[in-house]
Amino acid sequence: MSAAVPFRDPARTDSTALREHVAALLDSRRRGYALPGAFFCDAALYAAELELIFGRHWLFVASEPEIPEGGDYRTFDIGPYPIFVLRRDDGSIVAFHNTCRHRGTRILQQPAGVVGSNLVCPYHRWVYDETGRLIGCGASELSAPMEGLRLKSVHVKRLAGLIFVCLAAEPPDDFPAMAAQMEPYLLPHAVARTRVAKQIDLIEHGNWKLTIENNRECFHCAGHPELSRSLFDFFGDIQEDALSPQERAAYASFQTARKAAIAGWERAGIPWQLIEKLHGRPTGFRTDRLVLNGAGESMTMDTRRACARLLGNFTDARLGSLHFHVQPNAWFHFLADHIVTFATLPLDAGRTLVRTTWLVDAAAQEGRDYDLENLTRIWVETNKQDATLVEEAHRGASSPAYEPGPLVGSEFMVGMFHSWYEERLRAALNL
Amino acid sequence: MSAAVPFRDPARTDSTALREHVAALLDSRRRGYALPGAFFCDAALYAAELELIFGRHWLFVASEPEIPEGGDYRTFDIGPYPIFVLRRDDGSIVAFHNTCRHRGTRILQQPAGVVGSNLVCPYHRWVYDETGRLIGCGASELSAPMEGLRLKSVHVKRLAGLIFVCLAAEPPDDFPAMAAQMEPYLLPHAVARTRVAKQIDLIEHGNWKLTIENNRECFHCAGHPELSRSLFDFFGDIQEDALSPQERAAYASFQTARKAAIAGWERAGIPWQLIEKLHGRPTGFRTDRLVLNGAGESMTMDTRRACARLLGNFTDARLGSLHFHVQPNAWFHFLADHIVTFATLPLDAGRTLVRTTWLVDAAAQEGRDYDLENLTRIWVETNKQDATLVEEAHRGASSPAYEPGPLVGSEFMVGMFHSWYEERLRAALNL
Amino acid sequence: MSAAVPFRDPARTDSTALREHVAALLDSRRRGYALPGAFFCDAALYAAELELIFGRHWLFVASEPEIPEGGDYRTFDIGPYPIFVLRRDDGSIVAFHNTCRHRGTRILQQPAGVVGSNLVCPYHRWVYDETGRLIGCGASELSAPMEGLRLKSVHVKRLAGLIFVCLAAEPPDDFPAMAAQMEPYLLPHAVARTRVAKQIDLIEHGNWKLTIENNRECFHCAGHPELSRSLFDFFGDIQEDALSPQERAAYASFQTARKAAIAGWERAGIPWQLIEKLHGRPTGFRTDRLVLNGAGESMTMDTRRACARLLGNFTDARLGSLHFHVQPNAWFHFLADHIVTFATLPLDAGRTLVRTTWLVDAAAQEGRDYDLENLTRIWVETNKQDATLVEEAHRGASSPAYEPGPLVGSEFMVGMFHSWYEERLRAALNL
């Protein structure tokens, strides 16, 4: 046999060697600095992340309008785990591992579809009911009792129309607390009364953490001319002394717009106070209602609403963007007229799927109420630009000559993401 | 250097670590159940299989009509081993490793072709005769004697027109016993008097054992509407008590057809008794003359002969299908009017080549005696369906959440394949 | 987690295990024979080569006419290291690691281009001056002093218009000695007064050492009908006794041509004595002025000049070809009317980039002074032929059945390359 192949599985998360390896990597990280290059390339760390980060945390996978009717399903690959999410006829939502209990075949094979009242594996016609119970196996007797052959379930949580799953046997228990805090922010946008206007899958050629880092700062937003039409890039504590005269003028204009926006939010009776719980808990999250520039209505080229029909019971479009992100894999913009959801999943250590979905009011009609190109343009362009940035960061940071540099003040959320990431790995491995 | 790379070769089959690794995997298997997921993904096991299964057993690679004339050759990649099979001018068939004894270059570079009386390496014109002897090297003197630089040979066996090779220094010695049993079944179909009507290579995106398992049971045949036109899916011992009323009717019709078929086989003087030696020996094989449905003549959409000219000296087309398979890599359908051969070779742990070849009487003419689409349709469609099933089984069984389920009664040959597979690895590694 | 992944980095060049592994491979090599197959496939050896061969020796990457003006740059990937080479406004040439000191992003993202007086990372607009000094970071304060955040430089050497780089902190110190010997040979061809007529990147599907070996002998040149129009394949000491009558006639004709050529070289006042320092030093090199067949002017189908304008101050086109090669990655043909440069870089253990560049006098105009197809044909065809030979050598030598064969006399330079390669690895690892 020619090339060497390993055959012990040192990546098993209960192995001492893996714990030592991950501990050494985490110890090599310097707070306030970018991550070392091994964090983007190391095969064992990536395998550990799949198991300990993506296998044990709440992941946003879809919003309810993506499976509106009983029988509607969507399939996902969470690292090496194929799963599916299904709406049952009673409206409830369940998720299962997408592997037949016979010989393992994927039962649902399309990205999305509709099933009848039962699930039938296309290989040998094993039949499961909506609860995952095996009710038919085409054989008079089995060497194992059918009761023991239920589909393995995956935990599901719903938050104001957003669907989260967790593969762990015992998922983090802090989801309800997040939900209690977030529902007042999210419910007015009435996700459940929307429909999908467009969904685009983009593969970024970089490690998933670079995708997240890129989303956690707007220090790079000068590279997003379309996004910058509506988005101010002032986040966190701004030190006015440090601003250039030009920036100071922009900041003053931002402050004025923000005051007006807050008055509007108060009038509309929607919460807007920042919540920042990005680390110190398994389900790190953050929300911030962002004031928008110009007309202040939406994330469009002209900063005006993209859809004539507003969401929920909104009457005023000038609500800015409710930014929400949930670690490790999602972020959202909730506007008065539409919602954009972003779900990321790693494909391998150097490739990350970014799925962007635009939701509009269920009654809105393309052509009449909105122009699809106008609705989607900002994020179509911004995503492309981000994909290039992430790819080039990955290529450069993969160099053995790369040495992590210092984060600047406006990258504070990148630092918080790093803290959360380190906390979660240390907790999972008892480091 | 960025990503870690191993540089010891633990996959060496003489290493203690590999033996322990394979033993642990085999011990993890439960009889009567599907194989654990690691059997389809584990890189070291795959490397061991290439060496111990594909490197040490008889493999079917082609039938004689594929190299009908002296000088005709075909090249193959048996895992990492490039080889070629050549018909010599005296009609004999030989096989060699396709690596020049100078600097290793592949001497014959096309999938199939014709050579003159000598073999010339295209790199530096080293010349070998038909026996593999180096007879010219373009240099006045070599630091090694030319006698020691013969092409390395590969063992070849012929069975009624089928060509098998074995890479091992000492191939399994049970081939002659199989040949003695099989020749009475195969010779009447006169492979040597056929020619290739069509050959199609298909890559299945699954582990080679899933390809074999899929071929070893017809429990899934409801997913093959074209194949089901002619093929009854009753194999092995049928428990009539366990059949549904509908199945019982089909079984009765099968029994009637089978009685008539046996009478025909007896009239034609061709053997039809089941031989099942799938395990307990290196060269596991099985043959069974299958009765066909409908007109009972051939594996076609209308169950009638595809080729007007029958094979050999046959006068009656109603001979069903002589099913023959040989572990680890081949199966065959011998009909009265044509033959279909299937040879599989692993490309990597998750991809398998399936080469299907249709043979018809050497004198048959396309258009006059047969319609190519009619001849090939059943297996073209069935192969495509099987490729999807194998791919989906591979994707699902690769999930860490996959747990092998119980085999049902009609999957008894899958179980026999597993037994053979385990026996062969244990024998090779002295486990 | 499914497949095993390693997570120690045994390929670290300071590890005892790697040293033992490489030592065992080197010990397995037999002098005067081809390299064992593991040299082309072994992942750890390949990683060691990237670090110890390509990371620590002088590499030819481009010639000066490829970056003629201040601000012109080209980017390269030396294994995992992205770098760029830049001509500054003062005409000097510098090279840097192409990774931003902030978060590692590649600063220059195109294969070639032009920058202004400063270099701006497209991610967060960090600004570097031409010396690599960080002069702007878009933030009022950094947790690290900007002085410490210079771009990491890469060593550059120029030799008569050829640009070499070295990634090592302390590059081999024998470059000036090579330059002193080579300048008299190269300067008359006036590289700096040429321009690029054509550049073609070709990926050979073989290990980089097979690419080099292929270039180090003309024993295979019968497979290059176009090249053989102009190139005699007599190299090194020819034993006339061993020649066939036909070869003896060709050799006599070669001797006659060579005598005439030497007279011409003497008249032109250009050096032509063989220099062969292929091993025994870090920067192995060799030069030889080759007499050409036929009209003896150039490497063209009709052996006449391809470009009407001769290089430098040449008045006579009958100067043959000055062949120059530098280990580990380059070779050149300097003719009277044009120059062909070849730079190779490994892409992975089984793929090698070969970049071929044709240079003509800066004042030459396509269509008037030269026909591009005529200029490039010989090497376009020869490169394609070589790519096939390298691929087939790689495929065959990757077989576990491959056994290295004896080199013949005319492969003496292959043996010298092997010696250099072994010396360099032993020196780097203190073996």
Instruction: Give the helices and strands of chain A as they follow along the chain.
Output: HHHEEEEEEEEEEHEHHEEEEEEHH
Rounded mean pLDDT of chain A is: 94
| Distance N to C terminus of chain A | 38 Å
How many domains of chain A, as an integer? 3
User: How much helical structure, as a percent, in the residues of chain A?
Assistant: 25-40%
Please report which band the strand proportion of chain A falls in: under 5%, 5-15%, 15-25%, 25-35%, 35-45% or over 45%. 15-25%
Multimeric status of the protein: homotrimer
The CATH architecture of the largest domain in chain A can be given as: Alpha-Beta Complex
Number of DSSP strands of chain A? 17
Of all chain pairs, the largest interface belongs to: A-B, 45 and 57 residues
CATH superfamily of the largest domain in chain A: Naphthalene 1,2-dioxygenase Alpha Subunit, Chain A, domain 1
Count of runs of 4 or more consecutive helical residues of chain A: 8
Spans where pLDDT lies below 50 across 5 or more residues of chain A: 1-8
Biggest sheet overview of chain A: 7 strands, antiparallel
**Rounded to an integer, what's the Rg of chain A over CA atoms?**
23 Å
Please tell me what the overall shape of chain A is.
globular
Widest β-sheet, arrangement of strands of chain A: 1-10-9-4-3-2-5
